[in-house]
C-alpha cells in the first residue's frame, strides 16, 4: 500500500518542497497551513504532476482545539500517517530581548513549540499502535546556538531540539523513528515573515553568498526516510558551504 506523509506548513518554503518531494516518490500527502488558496494550488500541482492523492487541511497549529479536532477525525483512508514532518514555524522580529514584542514572542512559542506538540499528540498514538512511523521535526541551527537578537526564536528551536530528544527516548521500543533536521540559512519567506513584510531587509539576509534551497532541505528530509527499519538518523545539521554555523557566513562583497 502507498505510504502517507503529513507535512505541516506546506503553503510555502520547506513544507511545500517536502510535500512535492514525497509526492514525487509516490507518497500520498496531507498538507496543512493557514492559507487555503495556496493549499488548493498545491493540491492541484501534486495531483497533476504526480499520480498520487493529496488531502488539504486548513488550520492554525496554534489553535489547540481545531488542530486536535481536525487531526483526530481524519477521513478513514487517511488515518494511517507513516511520516509526520513537523515543519510549520516562524521567526517574528529580531531585536534585543529588552526591546522584544510580546506578540512576536507568543507567535513563535505558540507555533514552533506548542503547535508542534499539538500535532504530534494527535498523530503519535496511531504510529505507536501500528508499531511504525517516522516523526521528523524541523529544528534549526538556532536550536544549537543562540545569537544576538535571536533570543525567543532560538529558545523555541532549542525547545524543538529537546522535544525531539525526549520523543526519541519515550518512543523507544515502539518502532517509531524520530529525527531532527536542523537547517541553517535557506531562502524562503522566512526572513520576510521575520521582518514583518520588509522584502528588502529580507533579501539582504541572503546577499553575497549562496544559501541552501528548499529542494536541498526536501532532499535530505526524504533521504532520512529511506533507510532500513533498524536505522534512524537522530539529528542532522545542514548548512550551505558558505555557512559554518549561526555566526559565520562567508559573503563576497562587490
Ligand atoms: P516559510 O515562511 O516559507 O514557510 C513557513 C510555513 O509555516 C508556511 O507554510 C506557513 O503557512 C506555516 N505556518 C506558519 N505559522 C503557522 C501556523 N500558525 N499554523 C499553521 N502553519 C503555519 O518558512 P520556511 O519554509 O523557511 O520555514 C519552515 C520551517 O523551517 C520553520 O519551522 C522554520 O523555523 C524552519 N527553518 C527555516 C530556516 C530558513 O532559513 N528558512 C532555517 C532553519 C529552520 P501559513 O502561513 O499558510 O499558515
Ligand atoms: C532559521 C535560520 O539563522 O535565521 O532558523 O536562525 S536563522
Tell me about this structure:
The structure is a single chain. The protein is α/β, with parallel strands linked by helices and 254 residues long. The chain has a single domain (4-238), classed as Rossmann fold, CATH 3.40.50. 41% of the residues lie in helices and 15% in strands. It is built from eight helices and seven strands. Strands 3-2-1-4-5-6-7 form a seven-stranded parallel β-sheet, with helices on both faces. Helix 4 links the parallel strand 4 and strand 5 (133-138). Helix 1 crosses helix 8 (214-223). The longest helix has 29 residues, at 102-130. It is globular. The N and C termini lie far apart (54 Å). Bound molecules: NADPH dihydro-nicotinamide-adenine-dinucleotide phosphate and 2-hydroxyethylsulfonic acid. 2-hydroxyethylsulfonic acid (8X3) is lined by residues 140-142, 184-185, 246.
